[in-house]
Amino acid sequence: MSKYQFHPAYAYRMNSEPYCCWHGALDPHECMEIIEHGNKKTLIDATINSSSNVNEEWRRSKVAWFNEHDVEWLYPKIEYISQQLNGQFYDFDLWGFNEDMQYTVYEESDEGFYDWHADSYTTIENNIDLRLPRKMSLTIQLSDPDDYEGGDLEINAGGRIIKAPRTLGLAVAFPSYQLHRVTPVTKGTRRSLVVWITGPRFR
Fold first, then answer.
1. What average pLDDT does this structure show over 21-29?
2. pTM
3. Are 153 and 166 in contact (CB under 8 A)?
4. What span, in angstroms and rounded, lies between the C-alpha atoms of 116 and 184?
5. Is 5 exposed, middle or buried, given 0-12, 13-18 or 19+ CB atoms closer than 10 A?
6. Which helix (H) or strand (E) holds 20?
7. 85 contacts 66 by C-beta, under 8 angstroms
8. Best CA proximity match to 108, nearest among 190, 202, 20
């Protein structure tokens, strides 16, 4: 499990947005490197939240995990992007990465999707928090948008459904408590890198 703490950063603007974007978070070569590395790992059926349960009525995708030693340049780069987006839009009190990054594959063959859900949770055992709560979620588009159909990241902003852009290498960030989903992939394969940024409890 990753334990990667952020360096301090100044917040210079605060805005309540359902999501925000960082264009060119990864260039095409970097996207391909992540895909090649992810495909060398053992892909497993995605589970629901922090449980080990597979529920294909709610989620159908394959995942593998990246820690800070897998791709040396990745964590510092995503740290910088996360800090900048948080400073511009949310001003959350963030600690860093307390979980491995998730390489996710949605296939046409099983109409891969993930129904409405939020990412924010902590793991509780014997009344003790074992994990800092997720505060900001980041999804990076690894697939060329022409390589698949369906598979849209959609965000529920108070009942208004917003479809996020799907440009290659784009990072989409949003508060982890924001409801979101990935619609079924009807053609091709969608690949993404999902990152959760943690911090102290909201107060």
1. 97
2. 0.87
3. yes
4. 12
5. exposed
6. strand 20-22
7. no
8. 190
Please tell me the least confidently modeled range out of 19-23, 52-56, 82-86, 95-99: 52-56
The CA distance from 112 to 189, in Å, is: 9
Residue type, 191: R
Kindly report the number of other CB atoms within 10 A of residue 13's CB atom: 9
- Write the pLDDT tens digit of every residue in 102-155: 999 999 999 999 999 999 776 555 555 556 889 999 999 999 999 999 999 999
Q: What angle do CA 21, 22, 25 make, to 5 degrees?
A: 140
- Let me know: does 132 contact 147? Beta carbons within 8 Å: no
- Write down the pLDDT at residue 117: 94
119: left (phi over 0), alpha (psi -120 to 50) or beta: alpha
Residue 64: which of 196, 197, 198, 193 has the closest Cα?
Answer: 193
